[in-house]
Amino acid sequence: MTTVDRIDHNILHVLSEDGRISNVDLARRVNLSPSACLRRVQELERQGIIKGYRAVLDRTKLGAGFTAYVAVGLNTHTKIAQEKFEQAMAASRGVIECHNITGTVEYLLRVEVADLAAYKAFHTGILGSLPQVNVITTYVVMDSPKDGRA
């Protein structure tokens, strides 16, 4: 297990809010010299604690104005069934997240598509056509008053 001290936590907090912050500004915010800050960030990257940097997109402006969380239950609980389902979700453009979960179903998806018609096409054309899918429950997002995803 990796040891992360208070300074590293501060660095991670600042980077999670602004991954494009300059090293000089980051160092100032966490009270380090720029060289010490850079060494710590590089070490966090080397250890895999920082997996990468990404842009936060406004998907509505990109034409994906419909968001739903979809709970999916499989009819067989084999490794092959899970792998085939996961491959199909990886290939589906509207599936932004796919999580294998515990509970009454096996998967929770975050799906972002243009509109209800596009979701219906995904629901029936993709999910509904997979032989291992047994249960589909859709939760339509009406608003996101707090969304901390990067």
When the domains are counted, the total is: 2
Residues in helices, as a percent range: 25-40%
- Here the CATH topology of the largest domain equals Alpha-Beta Plaits
Residue ranges: pLDDT <50 for 5 or more in a row? none
Radius of gyration, rounded?
20 Å
Tell me the span between the first and last alpha carbons.
24 Å
The CATH architecture of the largest domain:
2-Layer Sandwich
Give a verbal description of the structure.
By secondary structure, this protein is an alpha+beta fold. The chain has two domains: 6-46, Arc Repressor Mutant, subunit A (Orthogonal Bundle), CATH 1.10.10.10; 66-140, Alpha-Beta Plaits, CATH 3.30.70.920. It is 37% helix and 20% strand. It contains five helices and four strands; from the N terminus they run H-H-H-E-H-E-E-H-E. The protein has a four-stranded antiparallel beta sheet. Helix 1 (6-17) packs across helix 2 and helix 2 packs across helix 3 (34-46). The longest helix has 13 residues, at 34-46. The protein is elongated, with a radius of gyration of 20 Å. The two termini are 24 Å apart. The mean pLDDT is 94.
Core attributes:
150 residues, alpha+beta, Arc Repressor Mutant, subunit A, 2 domains, elongated
Spell out the blueprint of helices and strands.
Blueprint: H1 6-17, H2 23-30, H3 34-46, E1 66-74, H4 79-91, E2 95-100, E3 107-113, H5 116-125, E4 133-140
Antiparallel strand pairs: 1-3, 1-4, 2-3
Helix pairs in contact: 1-2, 2-3
Q: What is the structure about, briefly put?
A:
The protein is α+β, with helices and mostly antiparallel strands and 150 residues long.
